[in-house]
TrEMBL record:
Domain of life: Eukaryota
Keywords: ATP-binding, Nucleotide-binding
A GO cellular component annotation in the UniProt record: cytosol
Protein name: 6-phosphofructo-2-kinase/fructose-2, 6-bisphosphatase
Naturally occurring in which organism (per UniProt): Platanthera zijinensis
Lineage, broadest ranks: Eukaryota, Viridiplantae, Streptophyta, Embryophyta, Tracheophyta
GO molecular function: 6-phosphofructo-2-kinase activity; ATP binding; fructose-2,6-bisphosphate 2-phosphatase activity; starch binding
Full-protein residues shown: 475 to 669 of 669
Any GO BP: fructose metabolic process
Length: 195
């Protein structure tokens, strides 16, 4: 069995402000997480000869991976957060106030709702296909540092959760989800590194 470790980036400045999307850097708590994560990975993958660290192309995931040393890092555009198009950079409150129809449509069908000039969860699931194929092909452990919507979709794939649940799956910050693929099926552990 080989592990796949899934985690969101450390808390970003936009997370603190409640703004979606964007390309902000880490908050202080996010930086602390990046160091704790590096420590955790060092111990967890101590006995592994090879492993790789996958991030998106957004700063917050690259910065979260920075303290990790000794393993190759790969950036994937396909691991970028759901594209919130016209709503990028807004808070949920601002969307509700300024674009009430958009807000309502998303509430009604979060899986299929597509942001104006952006993506839906279904779009994200589709663009993740090459990432999943490559993840399945890997023999060594992979650490995936990505974003909330993307990790919901990846997690659902490995944990065999139904499509309709995906937009609601809990993927908290500062938590590592370890997935073990064995002959007997999939096992899961969660490690919370900061409260
Ligand atoms: O708030 C963090 C974030 O990653 C946003 O960038 C993104 O739009 C959102 O979460 C996705 O979560 P939800 O689909 O619940 O809005």
């Amino acid at each position: 069995p080989r592990p796949i470790l899934l985690t969101r980036h450390g808390e970003s400045q936009d997370n603190v402000r409640g703004r979606i999307g964007g390309d902000s850097i880490l908050s202080e708590a996010g930086e602390i997480y990046s160091k704790k994560l590096a420590n955790f990975i060092k111990k967890r993958l101590k006995s592994e000869k090879t492993a790789s660290i996958w991030t998106s192309t957004l700063q917050r995931t690259i910065l979260t991976a920075t303290p990790i040393v000794g393993f190759p890092k790969i950036q994937w555009r396909a691991l970028e957060e759901i594209n919130s198009g016209a709503c990028d950079g807004m808070t949920y409150e601002e969307i509700k106030r300024n674009m009430p129809e958009e807000y309502e449509s998303r509430l009604k069908d979060k899986l299929r709702y597509r942001y104006p000039r952006g993506e839906s969860y279904l779009d994200v699931i589709q663009r993740l296909e090459p990432v999943i194929i490559e993840l399945e092909r890997q023999r060594a452990p992979v650490v995936v540092i990505s974003h909330q919507a993307v990790l919901r979709a990846l997690y659902a794939y490995f944990a065999d959760r139904p499509l309709k649940e995906i937009p609601q799956i809990e993927v908290p910050l500062h938590t590592i989800i370890e997935i073990q693929m064995g002959v007997t099926g999939v096992q899961e552990k969660r490690y919370k590194l900061i409260d």
